[in-house]
Structure prediction request, 454 residues.
Amino acid sequence: MQNHTSGDNSGKGHSKAERFSSTGFILTAIGSAVGLGNMWKFPYITGKYGGAAFFLLFIVCLLIVGLPVLLAELSIGRGGRGNPASSFFRLSNSKTWGVLGFISIVVPFLILSFYSVIAGWTIHYAVISFSNVLYESSDFTEHFNSFAASNLPVVWQIVVMFLTGWVVAKGISGGIEKFNKILIPGLLALLVILMVRALTLPGGMAGVDFFLRPDFSKLSTESVLVALGHAFFSLSLGMGTMVTYGRYVERQQSLGAASLAVGGGDLIYALIAGLIVFPTSFAFGIEPGQGPGLVFMALPAAFSAMPLGSFFGGLFFILLAIAALTSAVSLLEVPVAFVMDTWKWTRKKATIFTATACGLIGIPSALSVGGILGGYTIAGKPLLDFVDFVCSNILLPMCGLIVTLFVGYVWKKAGEEAGLSSFWFRIWMFVMRYIAPVLVVLIFLYSAGVIGFK
Ligand code: PHE
Prediction:
């Protein structure tokens, strides 16, 4: 944190500064943004909180808070040319801000420990769908529960950590960027195939209607806060990932344009995911607002009833796995870059160390959803849910608040780094100073259960 040169990657331990190409950066940032949040969480919260009206609300939240905070994080990363701790420190010359920045290095590490578990489930489901094993039983809830109770989730979680580590160890342009440049367009192709399949199912149009025809009477204050929280999670904000990616962006790249492209990409992938999940659910009489079990427990029933279902189901789970892996890579890069900077380790050594540590602390999470640790709960939740709750609902808004206050009140040269015209700069500052902090505090109070709606 105190080191002023290491973050530029030009210091000891790095042969030359690592940098993204310009399209590579956009695709990589989209890869981070598009993840289980878009494919797994977005459909069920949209189902629960008001369908199309919720979707519109989500777009508004992306525009008015998501994009400005995304721009802030990218600017901090490029301006400070370091990890979140060293960038905050360098730009403010204050140790307190360095320590605050450090929190957003711990959060992605913890998030990855359980994100990799869910990513592992998706790979397992892809395998058993293609091989038809999934469809041998007809009780998919029971099937999921017995899988979660076995030791297999640990095996798949280790596979995910290994793949993620392998990509990160190869570096920015030769690993992370290359991986995303192939997989993000590939993901789009898979999404389009599945969307066409879903839209041509008899009865599927009722799902489109639910997803795209707004009924504002369904909205509540709670929907607003859920939409806001999800805009944050979906753009990978508050976890140091966009700060870390920002450090590898070339000076001449426009961060404002990049933020728009990443926000637009995130939205398009969420839209298509909705156009797959809702028509499929409606065509087979599945209730889309039923919660986290939607994709693992309910959708297999739809695939089993559809011609070539094991193939389309397999593709669907592959799609989830790819989305999860490109996000996992961005989560791992945050602590890896920090370890490289701090201990002057090579990328390979830092990756092996960090991925192993993260894999080990994820094992109890993998065994906590009905597995051998299923009997132990913390604050009434299985370990995986508890870590998710603390990270997503407490630490993430906290880091988001740190970013908005830092850019709004502390870092005086933020505008130069962001490169906005004076008109947009004034709007950005207004959001950073007055709108985003208030909204983030509200998300926090709501998610932490301090304010509730019943
Ligand atoms: N944005 C990812 C998603 O939608 C989650 C994520 C958050 C990934 C933060 C990386 C960092 O699933």
User: Anything to note?
Assistant: The chain has one domain: 22-447. Residues 32-33, 35-38, 108, 233-234, 236, 239, 241, 327, 330-331 surround phenylalanine (CB under 6 Å). Confidence is low (pLDDT under 50) at residues 1-15.
